[in-house]
Design goal:
Order of helices and strands: HHHHHHHH
Low-confidence stretches: none
Radius of gyration: 21 Å
Number of domains: 2
Number of helices: 8
Largest sheet: none
Mean pLDDT: 81
Strand content: under 5%
Structural class: mainly alpha
Helix content: over 70%
Length: about 150
């Protein structure tokens, strides 16, 4: 989920954090929360294209796994501070536009694969066939019923 968001915001950590905060606020207003927020945050940050930034995130993830006391708010703050420092120092690297499009397509393909493996696509396909059956001619209905 957040890895796709990173692609959507074009590796802009500030925009990423703002989107995450917005999602969290919307969920909280409905009495909900994001399950496994830290896992998802790390996954999102690891999808960034700057290698130095991702190395820093790996370090924070390791520290967290070893019993460190970083929460989501602190992680977001540290990630944004590093991003802003790197941008100011012109050390932040974004891939060329073509690579970004390839990355976006890769993430989309991964999502579709996950949906397929979880059965969501299969259910959507069956629902589409049922809808066509209801709207189609009687012979198609018989043919489709036998396949379902």
């Amino acid at each position: 989920m957040f890895d796709q968001l990173m692609v959507k915001v074009n590796n802009d950590i500030t925009a990423f954090n703002n989107e995450v905060q917005s999602i969290m606020n919307q969920l909280q207003s409905h009495g909900e929360s994001i399950q496994h927020l830290m896992v998802n945050l790390f996954k999102g940050y690891e999808a960034a294209t700057d290698k130095e930034f991702v190395s820093y995130i790996h370090l924070k993830k390791y520290e967290n796994n070893e019993g460190g006391s970083i929460d989501a708010e602190k992680l977001m703050h540290h990630a944004e501070n590093l991003y802003m420092e790197m941008v100011r120092a012109t050390e932040w690297t974004n891939p060329p536009k073509v690579n970004q499009e390839i990355l976006a397509l890769t993430v989309e393909t991964k999502l579709l694969k996950e949906q397929y493996l979880s059965g969501e696509v299969d259910n959507l396909s069956r629902n589409s066939e049922r809808k066509r059956m209801e709207e189609g001619c009687p012979q198609e209905k018989k043919s489709l019923r036998s396949r379902l």
